[in-house]
Structures are given as structure tokens and as C-alpha cells.
Amino acid sequence: MGLKIAVAGKGGVGKTTIVGSLARIWAKDGMTVLAVDADPAAHLHSVLEIPRAQMPQPISSELDLIEERTGARPGTSSGPFFKLNPRVDDIPERYSKVGAEGVRLLVLGTIRAAGSGCFCPENAILRSLLEHVVLERDEAVVVDMEAGLEQFGRSTCRGVDVLLAVVEPGSRSVDTAARISELAKEMGVRKIAVVANRIGSEAERTAVVKALKAHSLRLDYALPVSEAVARADLGGKSPFEVPGADAWAAAVRRLSKVISEIASSGG
Prior knowledge:
The chain contains ten helices and eight strands. It is about 40% helix and about 15% strand. By secondary structure, it is of the alpha/beta class. Helix 3 crosses helix 5.
């Protein structure tokens, strides 16, 4: 089975760029990679150099598919009965698009949080699909999450090799990472790694380490401030398309090694 990771963090910390960059590095190294965009903002396509006009439609908006597989159409008064475990094994191939380095992109759309009062047909298919790609697929899978883990069922969480919590200098992102870590442990995630992004100095790194320690968390890796990523953000491009991409790719490759070591460790 391929490596399965989920990446979460406060909005704006750069997790989507990290997800897409990891997926491309893995693919360059010969892995077959499925990148799953489970963030409603849905910007992962840009890192994979898939034009917005060609990005896959979110599965949550594929109403005919949802009705076919669950027996109920979202948004209609079809009654409370629908399939809780619909067939999803063919969806990644049929509804994904191929991006840079051959990475396949699958866009989920919004999964409504537990406690929102809705367990509906679209939730049933999206949760089943997440469980399938994490627990049953042979290729490497990287999932770009929202800040919370409510999208994941417990079995899916337990199937993830590593949950990556992304922080940046600042207490709010560290607080969010701490909440993510607590929820992940409750849901059975075995290994949690914290990655700091946009670290511009040793003082910033030290401050992040101190803030994490207050929550009984440790820093596993720090990504430096990247001019390539900043230029890419300004131009709406992938960081692999702009000058300075080699330095960013090297930093992500080192992060990939750290993740692999954590995934294979006994602790």
C-alpha cells in the first residue's frame, strides 16, 4: 500500500501548496499519486498546473452520480432512506484529472461537519470515497483538509499513516494545530507531525517551538520562507513554474523524507 497522509491547518498557512508540492515530488520519484482536495476553497489544482476551467467538478456537485449510488438526490424530499455505503471504487479514475508529473486530482467539495444536523446522500458518498482512497487504494494519497477533521470517519483517520498539522509563526495557527492534534488522537490517528511554514529566522523557529511546547507538541520540520512560493501566489501560479523553484522543491523533498521516517517508525 502507498503512503497515506492528510494535511490540515488554519486557513492561510500554506497547506495547499505543501500538499500539491509533496504530491509532485512523490510523482517525480516514481510513485503513483492521488491528490484529494477536501478543502471547500479548492485551490489544489493551481499547484498541480491544472487550469481552473479544466479542474474536476467537486463530487458533492455531481447530483446524478450521488442519486445513482445512494438512491437519493441531494436537496429533494426523497425521504430518509438511502445507501450508507455506496459503491465508490470507480470514482477516482472517472472523476479525477491528471496534472503535472502525472498526479491525479480528485475534488470532493464540502463534507458537512458532524453535528451540523445533516447526514445526507452527499455526505454518505463523500465519506465512503475518503474511506476508500485511504484504506483500499494502492497508490500514495495526500489529502488537503479543512482545519477540522469532521470530514473523516474514525476508520479513515485510523488508516492515515501520518496527519500533518501545518503552522506558521503566530499563536492562532498553533492553537488550531493543537485542536487538530487533540481531535486526531480522539479519532485514532496514530502519528501526528507538525510542520512550520514560512519560517524566516531562527527567532521565529524558536518562538514556534515554544508555542507548540505549551500544547505538548513538538516541531518535526520547518519550511523556510520561499520567494518562489510568494511569487507564485501573486501570479496565481504553481511554485514550480517560477524562478527559485529548485530551492522550494529541495525543501519539500527533505520534508517528504521526514514524513516517510515518521510513517515507518514504530512510535
